[in-house]
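As noted in the main text, all predictions were made from sequence alone. Below is one such record, for Dipeptidyl aminopeptidase/acylaminoacyl peptidase.
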Amino acid sequence: MIDAYRRAEALHVSQEAKLVHRSAVTPVWEEDSFWYEASSPEGPTYVRIFPDRKERVETREAPAAAAEPTLPPEVTGAQTSPDGRYTVTAADGDLLVNGRPLTHDGEPGHAYGLPSDQNRLPIVATQQGMTTPPLLAWAPDGRRFVTHRVDQRHVPTLTITQSCPPGGGRPLAHTMHYEMPGDPLPTFTHAIFDAETGERVDLAVEPLPFTHDAPLNLGRIWWEDNDTLWILYGTRGHRGAILYRADARTGRAEILMEEHTDTIMSTAPTIVEHPLVRTGGDEVLWYSDRSGWGHLYLYKGGELKNPVTEGEWLVRELLRVDWAAREVLFLSGGHGSNPYDRRLCRADLDGGGVTVLTPEDADHQAHVSPDGRWLVDTYATPGTPSVSVLRDATGAVVMELERAELSALEKAGWRAPERFTAKAADGVTDVHGLLFLPSDFDPSKRYPILDSIYNGPQIPRQLRTTLRGYTLDPWLLDPAGGAPSLAALGMAVVVLDGRGTPYRGKAFQEVSYGDPAVSVGLGDHVAAITQLAAERPYLDLERVGVTGHSGGGAATTRALLTYPDFFRVGVASAGDYEHDGYYAIWGETYQGPPPRDYAEGSMLPHAGALTGKLLIVFGEMDDNCHPALSLRLVNALIEADADFEMLMVPNAAHGYLHAEAHVLRRQWDFLTRHLIGAEPPAGYRIDPTFGASA
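Prediction:
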């Protein structure tokens, strides 16, 4: 097994920068050109493209903007105006501009500019040396800004114990506000400040309750011009969306439009993405899945003018809205052979139809130049290296920019995942996934199956996407679950999105709505894996395991308790095992707002059903899925006299940071013993820098 461990370590996601080169292009646009950084085995290289001349210049010398990178606000703890004249910081609940106090009545739990505790994750921020910058949006004039004031003084608190503080001494208690389903929620108000004079204008909108994300957290407040401000507010449980227009000079605000539903009112394909709503004068480009699919609608003066897009597919991302040219550029989902692949499209704002600009049957990621003339498109499939091209506004390819170099990745033992389609548990609905096989795969052998699961209703598991600035690409080294690394140990790893997950239309996603367990398609996982094994004799249905983190940890335990004759082994990491004790946004959005009984979905009463091998892992300072959630499950298993293993990591939050190498090795050992049926290599240690010596 030692060779398998070495391959697994070499394929850890931390090695991607060394193993994958020229896989994507992120352009920095300038007047008549753009530049980007391209990785290579020899180090970074910089490419400048002159689109009109179709000219390419490559050099090792970094452009000035790359040579002098700006530290992010999370490091500096400050927000600086676009022209650099004003720097806004937060201290003791108040705001300061260039070090000068701007407000004077801030207090703990009622602070200016800061997120709620639940969104800020103060323990994680402290551990990673980050300082939470004030949340604000600068007006076009670069002098005024809008910020919020969050009141969470009435929100119940959560206390987490740090048993082993640095330097020793007594354990420390950390307390934060943490709203659970049915709790009183934090509220927010907004104010506009003049950074030069300190003048303040309060927006005439009553304090609005929210959970997890206030509008400024997720791009739901924006300036249209120096005098007009928009706020897109989601009601409790995401049952409605309300659009406010405010006069920045007086603070007067009005509701321009709103939409409500009995389930989830989405203003983007998922609740964790920036909204797909744009404004232009009296016109609003509005996103809604009222038709069963997420589409764009044009409103004028609060009245519907026309649908902009329609059909059995959905709008995934907005790239550019040109109000003068009356068109919108966007990425769609559902125009290809695989419903999760994105295509670049143009639509007429006035309802003249949609044109698909990218013919390649692949997943497309795109960037649009500020003037709309040029498109940088990177497209790929799970089995082919990505290709980056420059297109003109019609979608025609002007020149190829990059083609991914995967030779080092393949030399390390990586094997491209295989896409598959199966029927869900209903026998009718198609579900899609990826199958990762070991690099030394031999079809004459039999391989245990590992379901690498994350079945939370808010994000998918198997597709390339970007959420909150973080790129997820499971087709390479899978940062969300490490499937290639797990496959290298000698398992066939399945990554699947069953019913109840996003990007497949409202009917597909809302299978999970109101489900007290938020089990999100576990039956579909069983059905799909069973079908795969029937078609592929090398898959061993007698050895099926499951592993996941956070929502995937909860799914792992539920899989073992619900399908004990199918799932025999599980590694559950940092799970939310009881939804009545977890984030309010989770239970209230997917099970319904109060007075729903969120305790219905608890796994604790079913602890006695455990017959398989289970390892429970969590950090004692997890301020997301707090440790009490894991310990309550542990307590129930003890009361049921069930056999299980547990690893609690001191000083660790939702990620394991300093202990990640140890936790990973323990997970590998557990799966090797109980699923593969082999003995782990004695004394093996994963390099804390992850594969640097491999």
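The first strand starts at residue 28 and ends at 29. The first helix runs from residue 2 to 10. These features were considered when defining construct boundaries for the mutagenesis experiments described in Section 2.9.
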